[in-house]
Amino acid sequence: MRSRVSSIGLIVRPNPASGYCYPDHIDRASLDALPREPGVYLFVGHDGEPVYIGKSVCLRSRVLSHLRTPEEAAMLRDTARIDFVRTAGDIGALLLESRLIKQMQPPYNALLRMVRDTYALGLDAGAAAPAVCSSGTRRPGRQLFGLFGSRASAEEALRALARRHGLCPALLGLEAMVCKRGCFSRQLGRCNGACIGAETAEQHAARLRAALAGMQEAVWPFAGAVGIVERGAGMRQVHVVDRWAYLGSLEGRRRRLARSGPPLVDIDTYKILAAPLLGGSFELVQCTVQDGLVTFVG
């Protein structure tokens, strides 16, 4: 039913409840099985594929609230049953929800469906300037500095670094040289003059590395992978993360991750973990990961 204009000029909008029926067609056993603990729930369609994925600290109450929402009638009509995955707490639920949405692409999930890459400033051995690259890029001799949600924000961070430390934008590939007068920033007094020989290339490179060093911690403050220990609801899980890539969760005696392959750094994972991880809020265990096998250190 569409909105219409009444005889006195008022916009009359349809009432979602007028065409809403409680979803009795959804498998009752799957609803009865829902626990009151944290986890991820999946509204599964008639073809066996998820149509919507969500998370909650109380699976049962959250799913039942969907069933009472007339605005979600279309999604409920497309749903045949509810599946769920228990987690020890909210962090595990957030990480798993983000991963499953990106993997399965449910049609009713407007957010989190896109795998959004993160970027860094990568400085190769012997290079005069860093290059903007994917933060997941691994290359021998390359150091990564900073972590950014877009290529543009990484480039702007490099420009800000140059302004703050008097680095030469021309040597960094940000500006063109202007004859013998040096770069435009030199003419404005913002460049220390590496472009005209006022300082050597070696001196400029050393100052560049010192300036970039302040960004290093944001890339990854650990020597390798770490396990984030989360306890709750009668469970203990270890969420394995390496360079802001969520590799999977372990529980009980299991030591092999269900998922293997190259780690994928995703900006949503970074947003979930950055503040509490860098702030020291998590219980951590050091670990190494090879071919999906996790070995705890110490």
UniProtKB/TrEMBL annotation:
Occurrences of domain GIY-YIG (ranges): 36-110
CDD domains, A to Z: GIY-YIG_UvrC_Cho
InterPro entries (UniProt xref): GIY-YIG_endonuc, GIY-YIG_endonuc_sf, GIY-YIG_UvrC_Cho, UvrABC_protein_C
Entry keywords, A to Z: DNA damage, DNA excision, DNA repair, Excision nuclease, Hydrolase, SOS response
Tree of life domain: Bacteria
Family matches, as Gene3D superfamilies: GIY-YIG endonuclease (3.40.1440.10)
The protein's name in its UniProt record: Excinuclease cho
